[in-house]
Amino acid sequence: KNEVEQSPQNLTAQEGEFITINCSYSVGISALHWLQQHPGGGIVSLFMLSSGKKKHGRLIATINIQEKHSSLHITASHPRDSAVYICAGLNYGGSQGNLIFGKGTKLSVKP
Amino acid sequence: KAGVTQTPRYLIKTRGQQVTLSCSPISGHRSVSWYQQTPGQGLQFLFEYFSETQRNKGNFPGRFSGRQFSNSRSEMNVSTLELGDSALYLCASSPFGPNTEAFFGQGTRLTVV
Fold first, then answer.
1. Cα–Cα distances in Å, from B1 out to B5, B7, B99?
2. Contacts A94 to B, Cβ<8 Å
3. Cβ atoms of B31 and B98 closer than 8 Å
4. CB nearest to B42's CB, from A45, A94, A103
5. Angle at alpha carbon of residue B24, lines to B83 and A101, rounded to 5°
6. pLDDT of B8-54, one tens digit each?
């Protein structure tokens, strides 16, 4: 069993739909990153959070440390949101931890 | 502000050879982390350097090594290449380490034939 699990693995949505991607982890983490990877490989960091909720434009990320669960929501999805979304947990506190990655959720938004 | 620059972008090597990949972090960032991404294993942590010191290392064989220079630029080296080393190698820079926001480079796609 992976220490960081994402669901679903693949997601197809129609433009305008509300999207939720889930991330659960079995190890203790002090922070969680949400990353976006477009075809070609480049990765963009969307959020880093250790508690509560963060919002940036149409993207919202939440985390519940006690339940070991985080979600990434996309409101009013658009075809340009099509990408692979990866969550990564920082496996222990301080600056010397390392990231443990989920396998990613491949999102395809159809016009 | 320039982003994270990785060179080269693409590389083809033969089994048994060695390879060196380079990563120039964002100016002022002192932490550089390296990751390997393969279709089967996904993203895996290789190592992290901070102020020229390796602070953390993932579960990879000793053929994988790295270093960081005084200007924070980092290199990773893979010796005695194997077919399974074919992957996208990504580096990420951050001000102090993975507990701060990370900025990723475009990656180096290594193909071992």
1. 12, 18, 21
2. 97, 99
3. yes
4. A103
5. 55
6. 999 999 999 999 999 999 999 999 999 999 988 899 999 999 999 99
- 3-class SS string, A12-39: EEECCCCEEEEEEECCCCCEEEEEEECC
What token pair was written down for B112? 């071992």
How far lies B74's CA from each of A36, A53, B1, B51, B83, in Å? Answer: 24, 34, 19, 10, 24
Which residues of A lie closer than 8 Å to B, measured between beta carbons?
30-31, 33, 35, 40-45, 48, 86, 88, 90, 93-104
Tens digits of per-residue pLDDT, A76-97?
Answer: 999 999 999 999 998 765 455 6
Number of C-beta neighbours around residue A23 at 10 A: 25
User: Which tokens go with B28?
Assistant: 């002022």
Give the N- to C-terminal CA distance of chain A in Å, as an integer: 36
